Amino acid sequence: MPQNKLSIAFYNLENLFDTINDPNILDDAFTPKGELGWNSSRYAEKLNKLSQVIVKIGKAETGSAPAILGVAEVEYRKVLRDLVTTEALQHLNYDFVHYNSPDGT
User: Fold this and answer.
1) How far apart are CA 82 and CA 33, in angstroms?
2) What is the H or E stretch that residue 68 is in?
3) Radius of gyration in angstroms for the set of CA atoms belonging to the chain, rounded to a whole number
4) How would residue 103 be classed by pLDDT, with cut points 50, 70 and 90?
5) Helix (H) or strand (E) holding 72
6) Average pLDDT, integer, range 68-72
7) The model's pTM
């Protein structure tokens, strides 16, 4: 496997929200009492599935996970921290820069 290649990727996390209601964020549906019945088990499962996909992006071409990964549809910093510390990703020592942009919908 060539060692001189790195991958840079972008992945839409499709509404990665934790289960905690934040009055400053439109996250009511993603709470245990919300319309989606979002709970800790479902949140952990989503984190696990996302991390399993992310670690495979570019691996066939470079032999490793993406060196840089841009993401979208993230509630806030905490969910990114939860994602990068999953079992599949923690060994990659990912860190992140986060910009919270308002969602007017």
Assistant:
1) 22
2) strand 68-74
3) 15
4) low
5) strand 68-74
6) 95
7) 0.88
